[in-house]
Amino acid sequence: MKEFIFSVLDFLSQLGYFGIALGLMIEIIPSEIVLGYGGYMISQGILGYPGAIIAGTIGGTFAQLFLYWAGYYGGRPFLEKYGKYVFINKKQIDMSEEWFKKYGGGVIFFARFIPVVRHAISIPAGIAKMSAMKFTLYTIAAVIPWTILFLYLGHLLGDNWSHIEEYAKQYTVPIIIGAVLLGVIYFFIKKTKKTTAE
């Protein structure tokens, strides 16, 4: 598996900024690793931060738009049948659908930082025919800080970039906790407004 990952990254590195965007769009290896390697390339002077951030944002956003469109046009049956090809399983679809119904469109932002539902949350947004513009804005708002974080960590680690997932835990755990708390606050405010309106 390691050899496969390194061969893919070697291919993507030859494409420069486009390689980062493409790696995140197809996501055959985790986005954290693609961005970590992007950070490593920044440390080597091959890429610059502005271009890498833009490429990461574009790639990460399009990756989610593909799932959104799959949900929008294909619906749940299509994704249950073909989701395995993009590493999405029924459990993830069930959980993300439940979250979307419970918390509404705002969950698109908060869920981006939470494992299991992070990628699958785009599916119920498409199925529910959420506004594409709103979906894209929420997605970009979450993708940018995630991209910057992992590019920075990859840059910081330099030659040790391959240990990024272990090293990142000290940063991602607080982010996940913060995202959950913000989600709870968002849900509470939304519910309070709904109750007041009634």
Write down the overall mean pLDDT. 82
Compute the number of strand runs.
Answer: 0
**Uncertain spans, ≥5 residues at pLDDT below 50?**
none
Write the element-wise H/E pattern from the N-terminal end onward: HHHHHHHHH
Taking all Cα atoms into account, the compactness measure Rg is 17 Å
CA(first)-CA(last) distance: 55 Å
- What structural class do the secondary elements suggest? mainly alpha
How would you classify the quaternary structure? single chain
As for the number of domains, it is 1
In terms of DSSP E residues, the strand content is under 5%
Overall helicity: over 70%
Distinct helical segment count? 9
What gross morphology would you assign?
globular
For the sheet with most strands, the description reads:
none
What does this entry look like structurally?
- 38% of the residues are buried.
- Helix content is 77%, strand content 0%.
- The longest helix is centred in the first third of the chain and has 34 residues.
- The protein has one domain.
- It is built from 9 helices and no strands.
- It is globular and about 55 Å long.
- Helix 4 crosses helix 8.
- It is mainly α.
Summarize this entry quickly:
This protein is an all-alpha fold. Helices cover 77% and strands 0% of the residues. It has one domain.
List its traits.
198 residues, mainly alpha
Secondary structure topology:
Blueprint: H1 2-13, H2 17-26, H3 31-43, H4 49-82, H5 90-103, H6 107-110, H7 122-127, H8 132-157, H9 164-197
Helix pairs in contact: 1-2, 2-3, 2-4, 3-4, 3-8, 4-8
